[in-house]
Amino acid sequence: MSGSNATASKGVAGMVLAALIGVPLVVYLLIKLFTSGMSTNLTSSTMTSEAVSARLQPVGVVKVVEGGAPGSRTGKGVFESVCISCHGAGLAGSPKFGDAGAWGARIAQGFDTLTKHALGGFNAMPAKGGAADLTDDEVKRAVAYMANAGGAKFTEPPVAGAAAGGAVDPNTKGKEIYGSTCVACHGSGAAGAPKFGDKAAWAPRLKDGVDAAIAIGVKGLNAMPPKGGYAGSDEEFKAAALYMINSSK
Ligand code: HEC
Ligand code: HEC
Protein backbone atom coordinates (compact mmCIF):
# COMPACT_ATOMS: atom_id res chain seq x y z
CA MET A 1 0.00 0.00 0.00
CA SER A 2 2.64 2.46 1.00
CA GLY A 3 4.68 1.55 -2.15
CA SER A 4 1.91 2.43 -4.65
CA ASN A 5 1.20 5.69 -2.80
CA ALA A 6 4.80 6.72 -3.27
CA THR A 7 4.62 5.96 -7.01
CA ALA A 8 1.41 7.96 -7.40
CA SER A 9 2.89 11.00 -5.67
CA LYS A 10 5.99 10.74 -7.86
CA GLY A 11 3.70 10.83 -10.90
CA VAL A 12 1.92 13.97 -9.63
CA ALA A 13 5.23 15.64 -8.85
CA GLY A 14 6.40 14.86 -12.39
CA MET A 15 3.31 16.47 -13.90
CA VAL A 16 3.68 19.56 -11.75
CA LEU A 17 7.33 19.80 -12.79
CA ALA A 18 6.45 19.43 -16.48
CA ALA A 19 3.82 22.18 -16.16
CA LEU A 20 6.23 24.49 -14.35
CA ILE A 21 8.88 24.20 -17.06
CA GLY A 22 6.73 23.44 -20.08
CA VAL A 23 4.14 26.25 -19.90
CA PRO A 24 6.61 29.12 -19.62
CA LEU A 25 8.69 27.52 -22.38
CA VAL A 26 5.72 27.50 -24.76
CA VAL A 27 4.83 31.09 -23.83
CA TYR A 28 8.45 32.14 -24.39
CA LEU A 29 8.56 30.48 -27.81
CA LEU A 30 5.27 32.10 -28.84
CA ILE A 31 6.48 35.55 -27.80
CA LYS A 32 9.71 35.01 -29.68
CA LEU A 33 7.81 33.95 -32.78
CA PHE A 34 5.59 37.06 -32.72
CA THR A 35 8.26 39.60 -31.95
CA SER A 36 10.63 38.27 -34.59
CA GLY A 37 7.78 38.54 -37.09
CA MET A 38 7.29 42.13 -35.98
CA SER A 39 10.90 43.12 -36.34
CA THR A 40 11.04 41.63 -39.84
CA ASN A 41 8.05 43.75 -40.75
CA LEU A 42 9.71 46.84 -39.35
CA THR A 43 12.81 46.50 -41.49
CA SER A 44 11.10 45.33 -44.65
CA SER A 45 8.16 47.69 -45.05
CA THR A 46 8.11 50.57 -42.56
CA MET A 47 11.72 51.68 -42.88
CA THR A 48 11.94 52.04 -46.65
CA SER A 49 12.79 55.53 -47.77
CA GLU A 50 9.30 55.90 -49.30
CA ALA A 51 7.65 55.03 -46.03
CA VAL A 52 9.94 57.34 -44.09
CA SER A 53 9.39 60.28 -46.39
CA ALA A 54 5.64 59.63 -46.29
CA ARG A 55 5.82 60.00 -42.55
CA LEU A 56 7.84 63.16 -42.89
CA GLN A 57 5.44 64.62 -45.47
CA PRO A 58 2.84 66.20 -43.19
CA VAL A 59 5.41 68.19 -41.24
CA GLY A 60 6.57 69.96 -44.39
CA VAL A 61 3.11 71.31 -45.15
CA VAL A 62 2.30 72.78 -41.74
CA LYS A 63 -0.05 75.71 -42.27
CA VAL A 64 -1.59 76.61 -38.93
CA VAL A 65 0.64 78.70 -36.72
CA GLU A 66 -0.50 79.16 -33.17
CA GLY A 67 0.72 81.51 -30.47
CA GLY A 68 -0.62 84.96 -31.33
CA ALA A 69 -1.72 87.32 -34.05
CA PRO A 70 0.21 87.11 -37.35
CA GLY A 71 3.40 89.13 -37.13
CA SER A 72 3.49 89.12 -33.34
CA ARG A 73 4.36 85.51 -32.65
CA THR A 74 7.40 84.95 -30.47
CA GLY A 75 10.35 82.70 -31.30
CA LYS A 76 9.17 80.19 -28.72
CA GLY A 77 5.63 80.28 -30.13
CA VAL A 78 6.80 79.72 -33.71
CA PHE A 79 9.20 76.98 -32.65
CA GLU A 80 6.50 75.15 -30.70
CA SER A 81 3.94 75.28 -33.49
CA VAL A 82 6.14 74.81 -36.59
CA CYS A 83 9.85 74.12 -36.23
CA ILE A 84 9.46 71.56 -33.45
CA SER A 85 8.05 69.00 -35.91
CA CYS A 86 11.57 68.45 -37.26
CA HIS A 87 13.94 70.22 -34.89
CA GLY A 88 12.29 68.83 -31.77
CA ALA A 89 13.70 65.35 -32.40
CA GLY A 90 16.30 66.20 -35.06
CA LEU A 91 14.32 64.63 -37.94
CA ALA A 92 15.74 64.40 -41.45
CA GLY A 93 19.17 65.52 -40.29
CA SER A 94 17.97 68.78 -38.77
CA PRO A 95 19.96 70.17 -35.83
CA LYS A 96 18.05 69.09 -32.73
CA PHE A 97 16.69 71.67 -30.30
CA GLY A 98 18.96 72.14 -27.29
CA ASP A 99 21.79 70.07 -28.80
CA ALA A 100 24.82 72.36 -28.58
CA GLY A 101 26.94 69.87 -30.51
CA ALA A 102 24.56 69.90 -33.48
CA TRP A 103 24.20 73.70 -33.44
CA GLY A 104 27.80 74.79 -32.77
CA ALA A 105 29.07 74.84 -36.36
CA ARG A 106 25.79 76.26 -37.66
CA ILE A 107 25.83 79.09 -35.12
CA ALA A 108 29.39 79.89 -36.20
CA GLN A 109 28.01 80.87 -39.63
CA GLY A 110 26.36 83.85 -37.97
CA PHE A 111 22.78 84.97 -37.50
CA ASP A 112 22.41 86.40 -41.03
CA THR A 113 23.34 83.14 -42.76
CA LEU A 114 21.15 81.04 -40.48
CA THR A 115 18.27 83.43 -41.09
CA LYS A 116 18.80 83.35 -44.86
CA HIS A 117 18.69 79.54 -44.82
CA ALA A 118 15.59 79.46 -42.61
CA LEU A 119 13.76 81.99 -44.79
CA GLY A 120 14.72 80.60 -48.18
CA GLY A 121 15.14 76.92 -47.37
CA PHE A 122 18.31 74.83 -47.21
CA ASN A 123 18.46 71.21 -48.46
CA ALA A 124 15.78 69.27 -46.51
CA MET A 125 14.96 72.43 -44.54
CA PRO A 126 11.87 73.95 -46.24
CA ALA A 127 11.56 77.74 -46.65
CA LYS A 128 10.12 79.18 -43.42
CA GLY A 129 9.88 75.61 -42.13
CA GLY A 130 6.95 75.10 -44.52
CA ALA A 131 4.78 77.77 -42.87
CA ALA A 132 4.55 80.40 -45.60
CA ASP A 133 2.34 82.70 -43.53
CA LEU A 134 5.12 83.43 -41.04
CA THR A 135 6.56 86.92 -41.36
CA ASP A 136 10.32 87.22 -41.83
CA ASP A 137 10.69 88.61 -38.32
CA GLU A 138 8.79 85.68 -36.86
CA VAL A 139 11.15 83.25 -38.59
CA LYS A 140 14.13 85.27 -37.33
CA ARG A 141 12.77 85.08 -33.78
CA ALA A 142 12.44 81.31 -34.09
CA VAL A 143 16.00 81.06 -35.44
CA ALA A 144 17.29 83.09 -32.47
CA TYR A 145 15.19 81.04 -30.04
CA MET A 146 16.47 77.71 -31.36
CA ALA A 147 20.08 78.83 -31.81
CA ASN A 148 20.15 80.31 -28.30
CA ALA A 149 18.96 76.98 -26.89
CA GLY A 150 21.96 75.48 -28.69
CA GLY A 151 24.43 77.92 -27.15
CA ALA A 152 24.15 81.14 -29.22
CA LYS A 153 23.51 84.60 -27.80
CA PHE A 154 21.38 86.13 -30.55
CA THR A 155 18.70 88.74 -29.88
CA GLU A 156 15.19 87.97 -31.10
CA PRO A 157 13.84 90.81 -33.23
CA PRO A 158 11.34 92.56 -30.92
CA VAL A 159 7.61 92.14 -31.39
CA ALA A 160 6.23 95.45 -32.65
CA GLY A 161 3.62 96.87 -30.26
CA ALA A 162 4.58 94.48 -27.49
CA ALA A 163 1.03 94.53 -26.12
CA ALA A 164 -0.14 92.32 -28.98
CA GLY A 165 2.62 89.76 -28.50
CA GLY A 166 2.43 88.46 -24.97
CA ALA A 167 4.49 91.01 -23.07
CA VAL A 168 1.96 93.44 -21.58
CA ASP A 169 2.64 97.17 -21.67
CA PRO A 170 2.78 98.66 -18.13
CA ASN A 171 1.76 102.14 -19.32
CA THR A 172 -1.49 101.09 -20.94
CA LYS A 173 -2.77 97.71 -19.71
CA GLY A 174 -0.78 97.95 -16.46
CA LYS A 175 -2.24 101.38 -15.72
CA GLU A 176 -5.73 100.10 -16.43
CA ILE A 177 -5.37 97.13 -14.05
CA TYR A 178 -3.91 99.41 -11.38
CA GLY A 179 -6.93 101.68 -11.73
CA SER A 180 -9.43 98.83 -11.45
CA THR A 181 -7.78 96.70 -8.77
CA CYS A 182 -4.54 97.73 -7.08
CA VAL A 183 -5.62 101.32 -6.35
CA ALA A 184 -8.00 100.04 -3.66
CA CYS A 185 -5.04 99.48 -1.34
CA HIS A 186 -1.98 100.95 -3.05
CA GLY A 187 -3.71 104.25 -3.87
CA SER A 188 -3.88 105.32 -0.22
CA GLY A 189 -1.45 102.83 1.33
CA ALA A 190 -4.30 101.00 3.07
CA ALA A 191 -3.48 97.97 5.24
CA GLY A 192 0.23 98.76 5.07
CA ALA A 193 0.46 98.60 1.27
CA PRO A 194 3.35 100.56 -0.26
CA LYS A 195 1.61 103.68 -1.60
CA PHE A 196 1.58 104.58 -5.29
CA GLY A 197 4.36 107.10 -6.06
CA ASP A 198 5.89 106.83 -2.57
CA LYS A 199 9.56 106.28 -3.19
CA ALA A 200 10.45 105.64 0.45
CA ALA A 201 7.72 103.00 0.80
CA TRP A 202 8.84 101.12 -2.32
CA ALA A 203 12.61 101.33 -1.94
CA PRO A 204 13.01 98.57 0.69
CA ARG A 205 10.72 96.28 -1.31
CA LEU A 206 12.88 96.67 -4.42
CA LYS A 207 16.21 95.98 -2.71
CA ASP A 208 16.29 92.43 -4.14
CA GLY A 209 15.22 93.62 -7.56
CA VAL A 210 11.98 94.34 -9.35
CA ASP A 211 11.43 90.71 -10.39
CA ALA A 212 11.70 89.49 -6.80
CA ALA A 213 9.16 92.07 -5.59
CA ILE A 214 6.75 91.06 -8.37
CA ALA A 215 7.19 87.37 -7.57
CA ILE A 216 6.22 88.11 -3.96
CA GLY A 217 3.17 90.00 -5.22
CA VAL A 218 2.11 87.01 -7.35
CA LYS A 219 2.22 84.74 -4.27
CA GLY A 220 0.73 87.29 -1.89
CA LEU A 221 2.17 88.63 1.37
CA ASN A 222 0.22 89.25 4.60
CA ALA A 223 -2.63 91.64 3.73
CA MET A 224 -1.63 91.60 0.05
CA PRO A 225 -3.71 88.80 -1.54
CA PRO A 226 -2.11 86.67 -4.30
CA LYS A 227 -1.89 88.91 -7.40
CA GLY A 228 -3.70 91.58 -5.36
CA GLY A 229 -6.88 89.64 -6.01
CA TYR A 230 -6.49 90.25 -9.76
CA ALA A 231 -7.94 87.33 -11.75
CA GLY A 232 -5.99 87.86 -15.02
CA SER A 233 -2.65 86.45 -16.13
CA ASP A 234 0.68 86.74 -14.33
CA GLU A 235 1.94 88.86 -17.26
CA GLU A 236 -0.86 91.37 -16.70
CA PHE A 237 -0.28 91.45 -12.95
CA LYS A 238 3.39 92.09 -13.69
CA ALA A 239 2.49 95.03 -15.94
CA ALA A 240 0.36 96.55 -13.17
CA ALA A 241 3.15 96.06 -10.64
CA LEU A 242 5.66 97.66 -13.03
CA TYR A 243 3.33 100.61 -13.51
CA MET A 244 3.35 101.17 -9.73
CA ILE A 245 7.05 100.50 -9.34
CA ASN A 246 7.99 102.85 -12.19
CA SER A 247 5.93 105.60 -10.59
CA SER A 248 7.98 105.34 -7.42
CA LYS A 249 11.40 105.63 -9.02
C1 HEC B 1 10.36 69.58 -42.45
C2 HEC B 1 11.38 69.63 -41.43
C3 HEC B 1 11.83 70.99 -40.92
C4 HEC B 1 11.06 71.99 -40.37
C5 HEC B 1 9.55 72.01 -40.15
C6 HEC B 1 11.96 73.04 -39.99
N1 HEC B 1 13.26 72.70 -40.30
FE1 HEC B 1 14.91 73.83 -40.04
N2 HEC B 1 16.08 72.35 -40.80
C7 HEC B 1 15.61 71.15 -41.26
C8 HEC B 1 16.74 70.36 -41.77
C9 HEC B 1 16.65 68.98 -42.35
C10 HEC B 1 17.88 71.15 -41.56
C11 HEC B 1 19.33 70.79 -41.93
C12 HEC B 1 19.56 71.16 -43.37
C13 HEC B 1 20.98 70.85 -43.78
O1 HEC B 1 21.93 71.22 -43.07
O2 HEC B 1 21.15 70.23 -44.82
C14 HEC B 1 17.44 72.39 -40.96
C15 HEC B 1 18.30 73.44 -40.63
C16 HEC B 1 17.88 74.64 -40.06
C17 HEC B 1 18.75 75.72 -39.72
C18 HEC B 1 20.27 75.74 -39.88
C19 HEC B 1 20.63 76.24 -41.23
C20 HEC B 1 22.15 76.30 -41.43
O3 HEC B 1 22.61 77.21 -42.11
O4 HEC B 1 22.85 75.46 -40.88
C21 HEC B 1 17.98 76.72 -39.20
C22 HEC B 1 18.45 78.07 -38.71
C23 HEC B 1 16.62 76.25 -39.24
N3 HEC B 1 16.60 74.98 -39.76
C24 HEC B 1 15.55 76.98 -38.80
C25 HEC B 1 14.23 76.53 -38.80
C26 HEC B 1 13.11 77.29 -38.31
C27 HEC B 1 13.22 78.69 -37.75
C28 HEC B 1 12.01 76.53 -38.47
C29 HEC B 1 10.57 76.88 -38.10
C30 HEC B 1 10.06 78.13 -38.62
C31 HEC B 1 12.42 75.27 -39.07
N4 HEC B 1 13.78 75.31 -39.23
C32 HEC B 1 11.57 74.23 -39.40
C33 HEC B 1 14.31 70.71 -41.29
C34 HEC B 1 13.21 71.46 -40.86
C1 HEC C 1 -6.38 94.26 -0.56
C2 HEC C 1 -5.33 95.24 -0.64
C3 HEC C 1 -4.36 95.11 -1.81
C4 HEC C 1 -4.65 95.06 -3.16
C5 HEC C 1 -6.01 95.12 -3.82
C6 HEC C 1 -3.37 94.98 -3.84
N1 HEC C 1 -2.34 94.97 -2.93
FE1 HEC C 1 -0.36 94.80 -3.36
N2 HEC C 1 0.07 94.93 -1.36
C7 HEC C 1 -0.85 95.06 -0.36
C8 HEC C 1 -0.17 95.08 0.94
C9 HEC C 1 -0.82 95.23 2.28
C10 HEC C 1 1.19 94.95 0.65
C11 HEC C 1 2.34 94.89 1.66
C12 HEC C 1 2.36 93.50 2.26
C13 HEC C 1 3.37 93.39 3.38
O1 HEC C 1 4.51 93.78 3.20
O2 HEC C 1 2.98 92.88 4.44
C14 HEC C 1 1.33 94.85 -0.81
C15 HEC C 1 2.53 94.69 -1.48
C16 HEC C 1 2.66 94.61 -2.87
C17 HEC C 1 3.90 94.44 -3.58
C18 HEC C 1 5.27 94.40 -2.94
C19 HEC C 1 5.66 93.00 -2.56
C20 HEC C 1 7.00 93.03 -1.83
O3 HEC C 1 7.97 92.48 -2.41
O4 HEC C 1 7.08 93.56 -0.73
C21 HEC C 1 3.60 94.42 -4.92
C22 HEC C 1 4.58 94.29 -6.05
C23 HEC C 1 2.18 94.56 -5.04
N3 HEC C 1 1.64 94.66 -3.78
C24 HEC C 1 1.53 94.61 -6.24
C25 HEC C 1 0.15 94.73 -6.35
C26 HEC C 1 -0.53 94.81 -7.62
C27 HEC C 1 0.14 94.81 -8.98
C28 HEC C 1 -1.86 94.88 -7.33
C29 HEC C 1 -3.01 94.97 -8.32
C30 HEC C 1 -3.07 93.94 -9.34
C31 HEC C 1 -2.01 94.86 -5.88
N4 HEC C 1 -0.77 94.76 -5.33
C32 HEC C 1 -3.22 94.92 -5.21
C33 HEC C 1 -2.21 95.14 -0.50
C34 HEC C 1 -2.90 95.07 -1.70
UniProtKB/TrEMBL annotation:
<keyword id="KW-0479">Metal-binding</keyword>
<keyword id="KW-0249">Electron transport</keyword>
<keyword id="KW-0812">Transmembrane</keyword>
<dbReference type="GO" id="GO:0020037">
    <property type="term" value="F:heme binding"/>
</dbReference>
<feature type="domain" description="Cytochrome c">
    <location>
        <begin position="169"/>
        <end position="248"/>
    </location>
</feature>
<keyword id="KW-0408">Iron</keyword>
<keyword id="KW-0472">Membrane</keyword>
<protein>
    <submittedName>
        <fullName>Cytochrome c5 family protein</fullName>
    </submittedName>
</protein>
<feature type="transmembrane region" description="Helical">
    <location>
        <begin position="12"/>
        <end position="31"/>
    </location>
</feature>
<keyword id="KW-1133">Transmembrane helix</keyword>
<keyword id="KW-0349">Heme</keyword>
<dbReference type="InterPro" id="IPR002323">
    <property type="entry name" value="Cyt_CIE"/>
</dbReference>
<dbReference type="GO" id="GO:0009055">
    <property type="term" value="F:electron transfer activity"/>
</dbReference>
<dbReference type="Pfam" id="PF13442">
    <property type="entry name" value="Cytochrome_CBB3"/>
</dbReference>
<feature type="domain" description="Cytochrome c">
    <location>
        <begin position="70"/>
        <end position="150"/>
    </location>
</feature>
<dbReference type="InterPro" id="IPR036909">
    <property type="entry name" value="Cyt_c-like_dom_sf"/>
</dbReference>
<dbReference type="GO" id="GO:0005506">
    <property type="term" value="F:iron ion binding"/>
</dbReference>
<dbReference type="InterPro" id="IPR009056">
    <property type="entry name" value="Cyt_c-like_dom"/>
</dbReference>
<keyword id="KW-0813">Transport</keyword>
